[in-house]
Predict the structure.
Amino acid sequence: MSTGQLEQPPNQTVIAVHATRLVFQESSHRDLSRVLRVEFLNSSHEAFAQGLDEHGVEWRYKARTFAVEWDDEGNFVDSFTPDFYLPANDLYIEVASTDRARADARSVRLLRQNYPSVHIELHWPPDSTLNVL
């Protein structure tokens, strides 16, 4: 489950996202009302989210999907959903995986090309020697 696919409870607002849960708050008062688990696609995403939590950084997981490629006739061909969005920084982050490094770099390049006002960073695994941008 991602925040982009989450059905938000009525009269509640997401106030914080943590590596293992989303915290909701009643719109009418300040009491915490519900906790839901965030399902990550892989362990590197969960580790990255935990690092953000440790530094007190608010984040959203898989928050928005962008159309990034069209064919010659203008038909939609491909989309890209960055792994994280940091609202306070208006920044998207893609955590590159070693098995998809070239595809991740291509998706980030297409996003930058088609949406120049969108800020995105590609974070490589610590042991990666790849440089495909």
Summary: The beta strands are 12-18, 21-26, 32-36, 60-61, 66-70, 76-80, 84-86, 91-95, 119-123. The first strand starts at residue 12 and ends at 18.
